[in-house]
Amino acid sequence: MAVGTAWCKPEAVEEMGPFWSSNPISTIPWVARYSLSNPRGSAEAPRWLQLFAGYLLGHAPNCTHFPGPGSDSSIIDPEVERRADVATPMKPPIALPLGELVPSPHLFGHGSTLHGQSHVARAMVHAFCLIDATGWREEAPRLWAAVYIHDLARTHDGVCYRHGGDAVNKLKTLPHLQVLFGLGGVQDSDYPFIHTAVVHHSLPNELDKDHPHWRLTSLLKDADGLDRVRLYDLDPRYLRNPQAREMVDFAQALFDETDGVVPVGDGHFAELWPEAMRLRGGLR
Ligand SMILES: [Fe+2]
Ligand SMILES: [Fe+2]
User: Fold this and answer.
1) From CA 96, how far away is CA 98, in angstroms rounded?
2) I need a labelling partner for 224 at 20 to 30 A (CA). Which of 71, 115, 119, 232 fits?
3) Ligand 2 centroid vs 224 CA: distance in angstroms?
4) How far, in Å, CA of 92 to CA of 276, rounded?
5) Per mean pLDDT, which range of 32-41, 93-102, 183-192 is the poorest?
6) Where, residue-wise, is CATH 1.10.3210 in the chain?
7) Whose atoms come closest to the Cα of 223: which ligand?
8) Distance (Å, rounded) from C-alpha 184 to C-alpha 68?
C-alpha cells in the first residue's frame, strides 16, 4: 500500500461511519450484524451501502489520513501526517458517525444533568483531545469505549464507589453496544483494559503506575476529571497526565459555552464536537 494512503477515507463516505471498510467483502457482514442488533442500524444501512458502492465505483477521491480499525498506522509517512494535521481540523479518532460516539440519554440508569449525556460527551471530547496531545492513538478505541460506559450505571449523583463495576456488568447486557464497539475498533483483547479503567474510575484509590492498565485508566480518569469544572472543584494537581493539565482552560470554556446550550439527544455530540473544536482553536 502506498505511503500516506492507509485507510484513505473519502469525505463523501464520512456518513457511512460504522460500515466504512476498504474491503467490500468485510463490509457486508458488518452491516448485517449492526442492522440485526440496533434498530437505527437497519433504517440507515441501505444508505451506507449505497455510499460505499459509490466509493467503490471511484467517486469521491478526496482522502483523510486517520487510520481506521485494523489499519497499520506505522506505514503512514510522519511528514505527510504532520502536514495533514496542520491543514485539517482534528477529527475524532473513531471512524463512526458523531452521533454514535456517545450514549443516548435513555441508556443511562439515572436521569442526571451532572452525570448524564452532556457530561459524558464533554469527557469524550477531552478523551479524544488527550489522544491527540499524547500521541497514544492505540488507546483510542478502548478509551472511547471506557468513556462511553463509565457512568451508565449510576443510580444517583452522590459519592458512589460501585458504579464503575456496575457499568462493566451493564455492558454485558447490551449486546448492541459490544457490536458498536467492535465497529469502532475495539478488540476482544481490549476488554480487560476497559474493565480495569471503568471499575477504577469510581474507586478512591489510584491504580499502581506499574499496572499494565494504568495508561488507559489514567486517560479515563483525566478525561472524566477535566469535566469537574461543572462541579467547580477541578484541581489540576490531581490530573495524572501533563497534557491534561494543559487543558483546564479548554475544559472550562467547553462547559461554560455548551452546557445547557447544546441540547441533549441523539444529535448532541454532532453539535458539540464542532463547537469544541472551535473553542480549542481559539485557545491555542
Ligand atoms: Fe463516574
Ligand atoms: Fe463521569
Assistant:
1) 6
2) 71
3) 5
4) 11
5) 32-41
6) 97-283
7) 2
8) 8
Radius of gyration of the chain (CA): 18
DSSP 22: S
Asked if residues 176 and 103 have their Cβ atoms less than 8 Å apart, the reply is no
Cα(196)–Cα(178) distance, integer angstroms: 17
Kindly report each contact of residues 268-271 with a partner whose C-beta sits within 8 Å and lies 24 or more positions away, as own/partner: 268/102, 268/117, 268/118, 268/121, 269/98, 269/99, 269/101, 269/102, 269/121, 269/124, 270/97, 270/98, 270/99
- Rounded to the nearest whole angstrom, what is the distance from the C-alpha of residue 145 to the centroid of ligand 1? 14
- In the predicted structure, residue 7 carries a pLDDT above the cut 70: no
**Cell numbers at 247, concatenated:** 487543558
Q: How far is the CA of 240 from the centre of ligand 1 (A)?
A: 17
Class of the domain covering 97-283: mainly alpha
Q: Of 25-29, 85-89, 104-108, 255-259, where does mean pLDDT reach its minimum?
A: 25-29
Q: Indicate whether 66 pLDDT > 80.
A: no
Q: How far is the CA of 202 from the centre of ligand 1 (A)?
A: 5
Instruction: Judge whether 241 and 162 are in contact, CB under 8 Å.
Output: no
